[in-house]
């Protein structure tokens, strides 16, 4: 609960929300699904701005790829036919795993999950890391114009301190969100570009049960062209972990033949040499490192097999 909460604001316009969040005299925070915020005992928060009526709950597709609004719930993502068919259902599957029950998934939102980062313990973060997702942020911009009476040459109007509302948007890679997000910036949507012709994805996790928080998650996106790795994206994540892209593994594989499994095993071993996951009461660092090597190999092999099949069938279609 929030013991010192004084104000609750329900807004219908993004600019109105940004103005409320930018007030310097009262600490105001956005309220999305509330699954995390309302469980905090934060005495400094005095006001919340409810974002549910801003029209930011949507999943759509255009020429740039998939667009998912920040207020889209995890349950909506798990059930969306568009996401079930996009990238082999990678994002829909990850959203399903990200909360243990439909009740939680119907409340938790994409924007809240991104804003929390590792604290959300969501599988979705690892999946977003391999699809090179971009986050659209919007910030309020207030211009103070003093229109008090001027000089005889340039007479002014008797309107002091008029405020004009404006906005500015920018895109950043989601993995830089926690480092680069400015105060009072709102997450508007996530954009994901479509993959190339021969692509494959895979997601695997280790947990005490299918609904438990994952001790470790591995996600891969592989593009194959003419039997060789064209693009490789691999990430590991899990409970209390920021997803880590394994760039060394990716560089080792790109340009190499897909069928060489010894090369795949060597690339995984070389790339995981610097993998240092955190230890906690769930699992030790050593356990996560060993599991990470196994999961990384398995998701890359699965994604590569799917990508190779797609590359072969698309080549036959063009012949």
TrEMBL record:
Gene3D superfamilies: 3.30.465.10, CO dehydrogenase flavoprotein, C-terminal domain (3.30.390.50). Residues 1-169 form the FAD-binding PCMH-type domain. Pfam families: CO_deh_flav_C, FAD_binding_5. GO terms for molecular function: FAD binding; oxidoreductase activity. This is Carbon monoxide dehydrogenase. The lineage of its organism: Bacteria, Bacillati, Chloroflexota, Ktedonobacteria, Thermogemmatisporales.
């Amino acid at each position: 609960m929030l013991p010192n909460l004084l104000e609750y604001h329900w807004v219908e316009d993004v600019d109105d929300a940004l103005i409320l969040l930018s007030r310097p005299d009262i600490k105001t925070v956005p309220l999305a699904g509330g699954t995390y915020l309302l469980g905090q005992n934060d005495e400094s928060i005095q006001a919340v701005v409810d974002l549910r009526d801003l029209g930011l709950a949507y999943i759509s597709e255009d020429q740039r790829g998939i667009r998912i609004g920040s207020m889209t719930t995890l349950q909506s993502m798990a059930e969306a036919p568009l996401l079930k068919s996009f990238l082999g259902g990678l994002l829909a599957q990850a959203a399903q795993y990200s909360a243990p029950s439909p009740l939680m998934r119907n409340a938790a939102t994409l924007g809240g999950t991104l804003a929390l980062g590792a604290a959300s313990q969501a599988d979705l973060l690892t999946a977003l890391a391999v699809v090179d997702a971009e986050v659209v942020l919007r910030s309020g911009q207030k211009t103070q114009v003093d229109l008090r009476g001027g000089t005889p040459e340039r007479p002014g109007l008797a309107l002091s301190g008029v405020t004009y509302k404006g906005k500015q948007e920018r895109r950043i890679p989601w993995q830089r969100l926690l480092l680069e997000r400015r105060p009072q910036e709102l997450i508007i949507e996530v954009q994901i570009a479509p993959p190339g012709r021969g692509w494959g994805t895979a997601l695997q996790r280790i947990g005490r049960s299918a609904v438990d928080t994952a001790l470790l998650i591995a996600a891969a996106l592989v593009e194959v062209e003419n039997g060789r790795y064209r693009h490789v994206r691999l990430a590991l994540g899990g409970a209390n972990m920021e997803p880590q892209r394994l760039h060394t593994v990716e560089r080792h594989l790109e340009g190499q033949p897909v069928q060489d499994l010894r090369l795949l095993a060597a690339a995984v071993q070389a790339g995981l040499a610097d993998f240092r996951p955190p230890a906690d009461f769930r699992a030790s660092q050593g356990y996560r490192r060993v599991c990470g090597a196994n999961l990384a190999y398995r998701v890359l092999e699965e994604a590569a097999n799917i990508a190779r099949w797609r590359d072969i069938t698309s080549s036959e279609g063009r012949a």
